[in-house]
Design brief:
Helix content is 39%, strand content 16%. The chain is an alpha/beta fold and 338 residues long. β8, α6 and β9 form a beta-alpha-beta unit.
């Protein structure tokens, strides 16, 4: 019998690919959903890549409730805690994101340690290891912690505070379970279904022609398949215990993404605009579009992270950003999203 891995938030974009990666490597996977009505959606999405057979099962559990977590952990060897609320730039109450992210992480860790699982791999974010000042550029690594500040975007605060709470919990814990955290950048790549779009909506907007140009925003693009691979490597490596690993990718400007789509998709990307919008125009647009407000602070900023630790300790190598972007765009076109 293969070992069982619990993946939280099975309907999510990253979680879906983690399930695929684990099944491809022969593991039995249990994943959490908030409603049994979501089970078929997850199974159908995963089945587009790998036949789960009877090796994919489900547990009903919610990050904001204790119910179901003990049952979800029964017989589990490892946990990939991927689930977290996704944020919008115009979130008025930061606690709507911070509380479920932090309390959910602690809830998962309590159940995992009580069940004696070997390791929990938790998905954080590269922005939890970034300078808190938006005026700071440079290259940073896992030793840096974002200093929480109410002026930061709610999503960034939620990831930082949830990861910090997890490490604080483990510092007071004395037992066999170990914790590893993975801090991804901008996650693109193919989708498994239209119900699990995750962070790729921006690519869909570009392909649909809804963006008259691109802001001067830099992203560290990581392919979702490489990110799933990083989670599995972090789960298995003895040297990963008690460590943070940045899972960012190549730094590119959004104009580079637009050019990659035009070059890689031909006519399917004919509506993609490659011109860079003036910073002033983006800031003025943000006055009327709350969704743009969170990105204005990043205009022209070139803060980057190094993945040298993941490469050295885990043998991880992400694919080029353009490959991830084109795969994402092609997948969106095939699914009729763009």
């Amino acid at each position: 019998m293969s070992e069982t891995v619990l993946v939280t938030g099975g309907t999510g974009y990253v979680a879906g690919w983690c399930i695929v990666a684990l099944l491809e490597q022969g593991y039995t996977v249990r994943t959490t959903v908030r409603s049994v009505a979501k089970e078929e959606q997850v199974r159908k999405a995963v089945s587009t890549v790998v036949d789960p057979g009877d090796r994919l099962t489900f547990a009903t559990a919610d990050l904001m409730s204790d119910d179901g977590w003990d049952a979800a952990m029964a017989g589990v060897s490892y946990v990939l805690h991927v689930a977290s609320p996704l944020g919008q730039g115009d979130t008025k109450n930061p606690d709507e994101l911070i509380t479920p992210a932090r309390e959910g992480a602690l809830r998962v860790l309590r159940a995992a340690t009580q069940a004696g699982v070997r390791r929990v791999v938790m998905t954080s974010a590269a922005n939890a290891a970034s300078p808190s000042s938006y005026t700071t550029d440079g290259i940073t690594d896992e030793n840096l912690w974002t200093v929480d500040d109410p002026s930061l975007p709610a999503y960034r605060r939620s990831k930082t505070l949830a990861e910090k709470a997890a490490w604080d919990f483990m510092a007071a814990y004395d037992g066999p379970t170990t914790l590893t955290t993975v801090l991804p950048g901008a996650v693109f790549g193919p989708i498994l279904s239209t119900a699990t779009l995750g962070s790729v909506g921006i690519i869909g907007r570009m392909l649909s022609g809804k963006m008259p140009g691109v802001p001067r925003i830099g992203l560290e693009v990581v392919d979702v398949r490489d990110l799933a691979d990083l989670h599995v490597r972090a789960m298995l490596s003895p040297g990963a215990a008690g460590q943070r690993f940045l899972g960012t990718g190549e730094f590119v400007w959004m104009q580079d993404i637009a050019v990659a789509l035009r070059n890689g998709l031909g006519d399917d990307a004919s509506r993609v605009r490659t011109r860079t919008l003036p910073n002033l125009l983006v800031r003025l647009s943000a006055l009327a579009d709350p969704g743009l407000r969170s990105i204005t602070v990043s205009l022209g900023r070139r803060n980057r992270h190094t993945t040298a630790k993941a490469e050295r300790v885990l043998g991880w190598t992400p694919r080029p950003a353009a490959e991830a972007v084109v795969a994402c765009g092609r997948s969106l076109v095939e699914h009729g999203v763009a």
